Amino acid sequence: QVQLAESGGGLVQAGDSLRLSCAATGRTFLSYNVAWFRQAPGKEREFVAVITWSGGTRYADSVKGRFTISRDNAKGTVYLQMNSLKPEDTAVYYCAAGGGSNWARDYAYWGQGTQVTVSS
Q1: Which of 5, 73, 91, 97 could cysteine-pair with 109, CB 3.0–4.6 Å?
Q2: Cα(90)–Cα(109) distance, integer angstroms
Q3: What is the 3-state secondary structure (H, E, C) of 57-112?
Q4: Helix, strand or coil for residue 20?
Q5: Minimal CA–CA distance to 66: which of 49, 47, 90, 50?
């Protein structure tokens, strides 16, 4: 089993950067694909990025070129570096461990979320 905890959210202005962290506990972390999802008020949870257990990455078109996902297995942490933030990036960001697809239902373990607010 894996426990996940996000941190690093906050209030920033458009064009700024933030780095989110997802700290994992559990011996099997190394074998999991870890993704970031986000959910804005009144909208469905959407896929942002995923990093596989072997280090492969994939991004949603809306963040490609601006966001970078990485993992430090020694620290048991996955990061989401977010650059050139836009107001439409405002959402609660969740990290999740599981199957590696773009679908939330494919992930069994979730963190509690961290709020990112981008002002114009």
Answers
A1: 97
A2: 23
A3: EEECCCCCCCEEEEEECCCCEEEEEECCCCHHHCEEEEEEEECCCCCHHHEEEECC
A4: strand
A5: 49
pLDDT in tens, 63-106: 999 999 999 988 999 999 999 999 999 999 999 999 889 999 99
Considering only CA atoms, which of 17, 4, 6, 91 is closest in space to residue 48?
91
Query: Could you tell me the two tokens for 23?
Result: 């700290």
Q: Which residue has the tokens 């896929």?
A: 47
Tokens of 24: 């994992």
Q: Are 38 and 92 in contact (CB under 8 A)?
A: yes
Residues 6+ apart with CB under 8 A from 57: 49, 50, 51, 69
